[in-house]
TrEMBL record:
One Pfam family cited in the UniProt record for this chain: LeuA_dimer
Gene: leuA
Classification of source organism: Bacteria, Pseudomonadati, Pseudomonadota, Alphaproteobacteria, Rhodobacterales
This protein's UniProt keywords: Amino-acid biosynthesis, Branched-chain amino acid biosynthesis, Cytoplasm, Leucine biosynthesis, Manganese, Metal-binding, Transferase
Entry's Gene Ontology cellular component terms: cytosol
Designated name of the protein: 2-isopropylmalate synthase
Entry keyword Nucleotide-binding: no
Catalysed reaction, written as an equation: 3-methyl-2-oxobutanoate + acetyl-CoA + H2O = (2S)-2-isopropylmalate + CoA + H(+)
PANTHER family: 2-ISOPROPYLMALATE SYNTHASE 1, CHLOROPLASTIC-RELATED (PTHR10277:SF9), HOMOCITRATE SYNTHASE-RELATED (PTHR10277)
Biological role stated in the UniProt entry: Catalyzes the condensation of the acetyl group of acetyl-CoA with 3-methyl-2-oxobutanoate (2-ketoisovalerate) to form 3-carboxy-3-hydroxy-4-methylpentanoate (2-isopropylmalate).
Species annotation: Paracoccus isoporae
SMART domains in the cross-refs: LeuA_dimer
Assembly, per entry: Homodimer.
Binding, Mn(2+): D16, H203, H205, N239
Cofactor(s) of this protein: Mn(2+)
């Protein structure tokens, strides 16, 4: 491997990913994801946007203090107070980086009402200020792919002269295509004085489904940093997916001879955890990490794979940390076997957690003859999403449904007190959600209700995801059970619990404040 072929992986799951409406993570969850990214060999972690809220600031500062290997980066608009706040949050990192940006395309210039010269002056001031604080500065012209080429070259040159060490070229609205993405990087490298001394980065959004292709094309043209998120999490159609670019360069090393520092066997574990804490499930046919990515169900494919796996598999499940021997467990499996299985699936559990999970595993094994890996992952996700000390908890549920109508008798524990309701509805889920509303009146609106079977068979567990909105705040809930209606009510109250926590936080530190991305 020559250094020229080393591509730096910049993960922005905790900043651009978390910015996606509804993907908000708790403080502890952010720290946990950052530790996983650090351990898997991500070069740079964009930990958050410190000026956005007290909560963001605290998370970035703690990630900066805890990280062992990765560069820790914070985002700041082109404003001196933003940059100072960012530096305050990241300065304790072993290797801090300030990332400052401003929208340079005509549409973005119009909002702060800066003309080309005024904006150039602002870039000069802010990049110089950032560089005086930190020797590792990244600068981004937001909406670069819709910025006039001459102006883009002019501002990139200014940023380099003022000390930026990485220039990131964002395709903010997912508008570009592979050839154009490559041509843009090539043009900047050729035309901008000083370009040979810095790293160019590519930051693509997936609105037209081309983020991975656009990122790889930029690398072919000379970019050496890819900005991406786990599972492609991000606003609208998301960002470039880390697992896709990393595995593409690994599997097609013959035509893309680029290397990263990522331990790919950690991909599956972090993908599951991000799906769980963000409340954004991974689509079944998602490249690399989707449930079906390594399934060969059609007869022809199965036959080929059994004879020689290479007939239909271009990578091995183990390469991404997916356990190949999905041997089912059952009610006779002991605690040691469960611990070993959890370890295989990427979960390290302490003795107390193992005790809890074991009780739930036994209950599941009593209802379901064979417990597969997917069931255990669902069990872990459910226990993390719905803890024993939540404000609302399900105590008892009985639903009668059929052609004669649907009724639900529900008992919830509300702040330690049992409360019961009996309701009807338009179907069993509606009946039980009406019961929740009767016990715990709320204004939150259900935006999404989704059910997936975890495995095959009529005894399969169902994973239910719900998304709720209240005064602009969004929260998700997830739960799994062989009883779909029980999973539904648990997911519903899970989201209500999260909304409640968020409402309280707003009172404390205005955490939900939506910060404009413009520098006025
Ligand atoms: O998409 C984008 O332009 C961004 C910038 C803040 C880098 O996320
Ligand atoms: Zn972005």
């Amino acid at each position: 491997m020559t250094d020229q072929n080393r591509v730096y992986i910049f993960d922005t799951t905790l900043r651009d990913g978390e910015q996606s409406p509804g993907a908000t993570m708790s403080h502890a969850e952010k720290l946990e994801i950052a530790a996983m990214l650090d351990e898997m060999g991500v070069d740079i972690i964009e930990a958050g946007f410190p000026i956005a809220s007290e909560g963001d600031f605290k998370a970035v500062s703690e990630i900066a203090r805890q990280s062992q290997n990765s560069v820790i980066c914070g985002l700041a608009r082109a404003q001196i107070p933003d940059i100072d706040r960012c530096w305050e949050a990241i300065r304790h990192a072993k290797r801090p980086r300030i990332h400052t940006f401003i929208g340079t395309s005509p549409l973005h210039r119009a909002i702060p009402n800066l003309d080309m010269d005024q904006m150039a002056e602002r870039i000069e001031q802010t990049v110089t200020h950032a560089r005086n604080l930190c020797d590792n500065v990244q600068w981004s012209p937001m909406d670069a792919t819709r910025t006039e080429h001459d102006y883009l070259c002019r501002v990139v040159e200014i940023a380099i002269k003022c000390g930026a060490t990485t220039i990131n070229i964002p395709d903010t609205v997912g508008y570009t295509a592979p050839k154009e993405s490559a041509d843009l990087i090539r043009m900047l490298i050729e035309r901008v004085p000083g370009a040979d001394g810095i790293i160019f980065a590519t930051h693509c959004h997936n609105d037209l489904g081309m983020a991975t292709a656009n990122s790889l094309a930029a690398v072919e043209a000379g970019a050496r940093q890819i900005e991406c998120t786990i599972n492609g999490l991000g606003e609208r159609a998301g960002n470039t997916a880390l697992e896709e670019v990393v595995m593409a360069m690994r599997v097609r090393h013959d035509i893309m001879p680029f290397d990263t520092g990522v331990d790919t066997t950690k991909i599956m574990g972090i993908s599951r955890r991000v799906a769980q804490v963000s409340g954004f499930p991974v689509q079944f046919n998602k490249a690399i990490v989707g449930k079906n990515a390594f399934l060969h169900e059609s007869g022809i494919h199965q036959d080929g794979v059994l004879k020689n796996v290479e007939t239909f598999e271009i990578m091995r499940p183990a390469d991404i940390g997916l356990n190949e021997n999905n041997i089912a467990m059952g009610k006779h499996s002991g605690r040691a076997a469960l611990r070993a299985k959890l370890k295989d699936l990427g979960y390290e559990v302490g003795d107390n957690q193992l005790k809890d999970v074991f009780v739930r595993f036994k209950a599941l094994a009593d209802r379901k003859k064979e417990v597969y890996d997917e069931d255990i992952v669902a069990l872990m996700q459910d226990s993390a999403a719905n803890t024993g000390d939540d404000y609302l908890q399900v105590k008892h549920l009985r639903v009668v449904c059929g052609s004669d109508g649907q009724t639900a008798d529900l008992t919830l524990i509300v702040d330690g007190q049992e409360q019961t309701a009996s309701t009807t509805g338009d179907g069993p889920v509606d009946a039980v959600f009406n019961a929740v509303r009767q016990i715990y009146p709320h204004e939150a609106r259900l935006q999404l209700y989704q059910v997936h079977a975890v495995t095959e068979g009529t005894d399969a567990q169902a994973t239910v995801s719900v998304r709720m909105e209240e005064e602009g705040r969004i929260a998700t809930g997830q739960a799994a059970d062989t009883d779909t209606i029980l999973a539904s009510v648990k997911a519903y109250i899970g989201a209500l619990n999260r909304l409640r926590v968020r409402r309280e936080q707003v009172g404390k530190d205005a955490d939900a404040k939506q910060v404009s991305m413009y520098s006025h």
